[in-house]
User: Which sequence fits this backbone?
DNA sequence: TATGAATGAGATTTCATTCAT
DNA sequence: TATGAATGAAATCTCATTCAT
């Protein structure tokens, strides 16, 4: 995991807050600086420009998520279905609380650093995919394209997290989402 | 469906083109005006400001999509599974072709005319939901919360459309996505 | 007196209302047109541009005022002091009710038509001046420069009309203003 | 007196120059910035918008005027008539030299920071009024409403300053104006 | 390293004026 | 004569970025 200095962390936290709640062009760097309690010029000591700061935010959020998931499914006493359940619950919880544009490229496209970020994204998908593949290999699951399924999962969770149906709680969503995926790929015995 | 004048249509088309190919803040209204062959001031006769123009573009595209889906599943000779297949294929095709326009699925969060949007979004979800409910009633499907499933569908299609795995074609995604959903909710007989 | 068509009058009335209550650059021709219930283009049938409309307003207001005063002091049974009193009372009343920028060139300077308006302005001053001169000739008044005095009068009345001291009525101002002028130029006998 | 930073002063000077020589809507902020040798954006660090800059210019000029007058009449060796003479001469000179700036006498009506203005205006009137009252108390003057008279004075001076009669010099106006006022309120002994 | 005043390119927006109907 | 949609020049204003301190 990349290490961030204390000041860098403060900036990233502030920027994350902002980019999460407004579109790119409505986030003012002066506000970010203010919220991070640093001077505007200081931002430029740590990030080349606004776009790079944006990608740095996405990168960090993603890294933390991947790290967490990675930790959770390392426990060997879990079978693939349990691992997948863990992943889905974790993602749901995370997105439900902070429906960030975590996996959204948003409106900013061409950026040199975006490569680095793309890799992180792929890391998440590969992580989920590997669990599915493991399940397939062990005869639990059946899936003609585990990579696609792996991408579906954060995507559909995100959609209900941003606009949750009224009067629904996180647990209900978690349960339904797990069922939805498992019924689709699990082999009935 | 809302009616647009000839000039409005020309502006919306030009703007759609622009907003689809560049981030919001890199789209210049003077370019939009130029592409639509109207004066810059004319834009302001039809749209209060840049933001409203942006949302008008998205709203029109979204409305057309909902309209199309609605038309397609009206055909009574289709059973619920066929209807759902139609919806998924249609969504996938549309997003796959015009993937940059990611907001298209109604995931527009902070929008001035939010009510109008919310209604359209609900319209899409309700449309999909109704097909699922119909399937449940007719004994084809089993789903403890069809509304959630209805929201999943555009969500996960969107996620593979934005970042399609390499070397995959639209048909493969369509097929896999249909399978993914149907295996999850279809009752095996 | 210049004659105005019915439509011209409507436009001038609307414009007068606007120019009186806002600075030149805050008066929109579309508002004037709206208030006059004519099309925006129609304004240009009667007035070459915004500046000319502005001057036309001033010209008309001035003409009316001069006309009125002129009528009032034609009565031959009035002596110069009575005539001056009449003028001051009339001006005060008029300005008190409608503290228009009647004699204010405002911020708009170079305009061909402004010559015409200048003449009207001079007409008012000359009118007042003539009464003073008459008084001097008849031994009532003493004034080393009646033209200056003539210009003072509308000027100082305007200043108290725009910002009247609290709790003062028009009559009190009228009375005080008359005294102020007459004590200054009347010869004590 | 409000303090202005060096840069603020440079901007105000440049703006004063511009607003004095052209109508409001013909003054370009880019020109002001250029003349003050600052960036266009710098103007906005010191003044919220064009209007506020405009009023800041007027306010500063007006404040200086009031300040100057205030200083001049503090000299105790002057009797009320001499003080009034000083005031009138000073006002006349100032307006005669810089006549275009007609708003200067506090006749600014619709202004955002209206309270601040009102106070300054009242300050000027009270200053003049106090001299008259002093004269009345010392038996030099007679005036049934010194406040009204105090308001007349800047008002009538303004009117001859904007449109001075042809071929007249400042001294003539000064002399006549003083006579005009003193003859009106002075008690003949 | 840290700052935030200053910048100015370039964005959005306005509105007097035109002109086809 | 009357209109008001259309115009686009030109205005105001923003904000990412720089740089002297």
Assistant:
């Amino acid at each position: 995991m990349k290490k961030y200095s204390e000041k860098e962390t403060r900036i990233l936290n502030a920027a994350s807050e902002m980019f999460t709640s407004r579109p790119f062009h409505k986030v003012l760097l002066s506000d970010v600086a203010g919220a991070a309690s640093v001077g505007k010029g200081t931002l430029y000591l740590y990030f080349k420009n606004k776009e790079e700061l944006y990608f740095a935010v996405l990168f960090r959020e993603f890294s933390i998520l991947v790290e967490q998931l990675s930790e959770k499914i390392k426990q060997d006493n879990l079978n693939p279905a349990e691992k997948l359940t863990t992943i889905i619950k974790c993602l749901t919880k995370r997105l439900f609380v902070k429906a960030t544009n975590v996996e959204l490229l948003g409106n900013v496209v061409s950026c040199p650093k975006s490569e680095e970020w793309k890799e992180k994204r792929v890391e998440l998908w590969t992580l989920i995919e590997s669990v599915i593949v493991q399940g397939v290999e062990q005869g639990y699951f059946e899936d003609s394209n585990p990579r696609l399924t792996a991408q579906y999962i954060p995507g559909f969770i995100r959609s209900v997290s941003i606009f949750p149906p009224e009067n629904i709680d996180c647990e209900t969503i978690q349960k339904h989402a797990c069922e939805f995926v498992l019924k689709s790929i699990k082999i009935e015995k």
The radius of gyration of chain D is 18 Å. Helices of chain D lie at 6-21, 29-35, 40-46, 50-72, 80-97, 114-137, 146-162, 170-185. Residues 104-109 of chain D have pLDDT under 50 and may be disordered. Chain D has eight helices and no strands.
